[in-house]
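Why show two proteins at once? Because comparison is the fastest way to build intuition. When a single record is shown, students tend to memorize it. When two are placed side by side, the eye starts asking what differs. So, the first record is below.
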Amino acid sequence: MKFLKKSLKNKLFFTISIFIIFIFAVLTVLQIHQVYQTLDNDLEKELKSVGILTAMQLDPKDLSKLEKVKNSKDKIFIENQKLLDKILKQQGTMSWSYIWKIDGDDVFTIGFTSNLNEIYKAGEKFDNLAEVHLTTAKAAIKSGQAEVTPIFEDPYGSWRTVFVPLKDSAGEIFGVIGIDYSADYINQIVLNAIIKQVIVAIAGLVILLLALQFTISRLFKPLNKLVSAADKVAKGDLSSVQFNATDDEIGKLSFSIQKMIHNLQRMITNIRNTSNQLAESSEQLSANSNEAFQFSNMVSNEIEKVAGSSEATLKTTKECAQAIDESAQGIQKIAESASSVADNSAQVSNEAKKGNEVVQNLINQMNLISQSVDLIEETIGRLNNNSKRIIEFVNFITEVADQTNLLALNAAIEAARAGEHGKGFAVVAEEVRKLAEQSANSAGEISQLIQIILEDSKASVEATAKGKENVNIGHTYTNEAGKLFGRILSSIEAVAAQIQEISAASQQMSAATEEVAASVSDMEQMAEQSAEYSKNVTMSTKKQLQSMETIENTSTELGKLSEQLQVLIKEFKLEEK
């Protein structure tokens, strides 16, 4: 059944043919049945007509005499047999005929054709009868009309018999004449009629199937063109596809397919143009993503270096803050002691005016040192600015400590000269000298830590050099102040005035140290934030680097896909314009 799977036309023809054959078969069977019924009725009528005609040829007077026949030698029997043979010969289709005299259930044969001489005996009772045979004969006698049996079988064959009642000269029914017809003859008549009917049905069926084949072929001719066009489209050939325009469903389908092919041509052309643009864009994207990837890699490396530097700066800043805290504690002690001495020397403040002028010059020089430290602050940013302020106050503390140490030494000398009256000042001068030495030591440690920070910047070194120059100038003025105090050491009041200056300077040192500590604390927080920001930027840069690498790989894959798309598009053959 492969031909059915490959052809819709064959499927349709086969399906309709099966339906038509089935209808023809049913109609033929019904027709045959109708013919059979008609033939049966016609044959029955024919048999009755033959039986009646035969009975009419028999003389009732002879029949009355025939009732008394005893054997086949009786003259009346012989004459009757000759008549029956003559009728048999004239009719031609009957097998034989016979005359029965029926008495209840007993049957006596009183006449028959010569071809029954071996079966029947004239005037004798006949017992070898079929049931239907006897029943139909009795029915004919009872009804007084001809009756026909259905086909039946007896020991002599298959038959169909017509019985016609016979009347004697008195008009009384005394028996029947029976005429047997062979069932083969009857069946042959029916078979011939059936064969004719089947031949007519087959001929009509063949003609109808041929007409069906012709009609389906004509209907499928446009469809075959559609299939051919679809095959060309399936192979990628979209050029020069034309169809015949009709108004039926296949014509509408042809128009729709032709419209679809035109749309497909336009779509493939657009895809081809888009594919070319995509290939160019993917190449450009790949190049740009590669450059961006390299740049992002460089930025990531630099940011990692910045993060490392920020962590180192944070560590150094924490160490500096710790040292400044320790220095602030020492300076606070100096301030407290100086304040106590200043309270005790309030009475001699008027005698130290000249020493105050010298100390004022020292303060002015310290301002110059502060300006130099400001230059360092501008050079290294906020971190170096705070460091400059620290070095400014450290230098100030150092100068004040040196001056305080010198003044304490001079005060001790003058107190010794004063004798018993200067012992109290000698003790105070010794305490001041010790505090000045502690301040000088703390200031030295702070200078070492600040020096580590300042070494990170060339600008810081230059600013530090300027600071050192100003410190030298400060030392010069300090020496001048020492000479002036040498001239006024004869007066204890000068010592008191100098101690007041020390107290004021100690307070300034304490305030400056607190300010430096606050600045260093701010620097530490800023350094921590900077380190944290550097870490976040480093992580973001790494993520961006991964994204750029993904973009580069995607652009490469996009280029490959565009090349594959162009290869696929080349398989389509479009109509040249």
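Second record. Ask yourself what differs from the first in the token line.
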Amino acid sequence: MSLTLALVTIDASDAVRLGTFWADVVGAKIHLTESGAYVMLGGGQPGLAFQQVDTPTPGKNKFHLDFATNNIAVEEARLLELGATKMGDFGDSSFRWVQFADLEGNLFDVAIEG
């Protein structure tokens, strides 16, 4: 017997707002529960979900999402336009990535594919 990773669920103060941001980032459709307290993004495995919480977990997030692109400059401009905050450039000539924070401060990275 084995498990299949189905969703990565992120706690959110405003699940609909954060889910909408990430749907725009990854080009996915939003699926809402009736209450709007749980938002899932369609397409792809594992999926992303956002769960409404009353009290956000304090401190730095313990994990983050990593994305790959063939053009960091284009993605950086697009993410900033969507409302992400650039946290910094990292790496060296052999591997480079840019770190961002989403609308609620969750960190994520974008690196060159390959």
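One difference worth noting in the second protein: The CA atoms of residues 61 and 106 lie 6 Å apart.
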